[in-house]
């Protein structure tokens, strides 16, 4: 990372057919929150191409360990112990090193530690539900947590969220900023979730489903799931940012 | 023929109602995991430039303020430089992060950033853009984070020459991008729908 000059090329346009549209009536909350007019497009300027960077000094020793980072001394979160790991890459397949990845989730019973979550499943006194890490120079990250539970939510009369972990990723330019969710291989709730189904393309949904990864399981300790995240790619910088007449 | 072999961007999913747990945990009532919420303070020392407060609300299609949104802003420093590894024109003010993150209040829906007035940044063709702040809004019910720009209504001359503002066909919508000034407080409300729907950008 430090040996390479920063990349300053503009980003590839987003594919609006791959992302969910704003108005997705199956997910009722979107109806009054979806802009109705066309977005105005322009080729990224420096403000979109550049983005904030966060140093490893930001991180505490337990930031990527949700089993311990809210637990009392000598205790740990309840649930299936898992490792989630993968690579943050861009659409060119290049690893995105040194980027901040944040994650949050419900506890093993499907309850969030949030003042607005009133689900009757109990809080786990040893589980907060947030973590973060910074990718290594090649773009890899990992963290340890418990497998979140599914939970019911008010949308239809009987809608349930599949087990999922929320991800927030920065990338190197602010126009790469992305929030998404990771699902777990084999969860039967994925196919019937109104939020998952805001995405119309099954291949795009598949990109958010993490396979079980036996090779990275820690025997007698924790299961593993692999979740790669792809951010927008950049154009070559060679012919970028020319002034008029050049 | 060769193949482009390009990957697809991971599709977005809503940040949901509990985005605060991961991004501003103290707002969710979670203390002790991090020393403080990331992005709470943009000014970390004796930052140069004019100190301003940027505040407002995000309204849905009924005019109800969103009380579960999260907003991030990203801007140049007072000299027009970004605090980013991709800034190759010089070094930004080390006392100014350029990036901030705030939730909308759980009761009032009001967000507020303490920041500095940004300097002007060149467009790729060399023309100067008017001072502006890039804003990104996520919330329950928003499937892909919304990008907009905050301009300043008292920068009439710079706004008139701004390459982005001047390409907006429907001039009647341009005021949706203007923060209203009262002293050092600049108010910028976002309307997700309706007659005054804010201009959102695909960048």
Automatic annotation (TrEMBL), chain A:
Domain of life: Bacteria
EC number: 1.13.11.3
UniProt domain Intradiol ring-cleavage dioxygenases: residue ranges: 84-112
A biological process from GO: 3,4-dihydroxybenzoate catabolic process
Alphabetic keyword roster: Dioxygenase, Oxidoreductase
InterPro entries: Intradiol_dOase_C, Intradiol_dOase_core, Intradiol_RC_Dioxygenase, PCDO_beta_N, Protocat_dOase_b
One Pfam family from the record: Dioxygenase_C
GO terms assigned for molecular function: ferric iron binding; protocatechuate 3,4-dioxygenase activity
Top-tier EC class: oxidoreductase
Keyword Membrane tagged: no
Membership in a protein family: Belongs to the intradiol ring-cleavage dioxygenase family.
Name of the protein in question: Protocatechuate 3,4-dioxygenase subunit beta
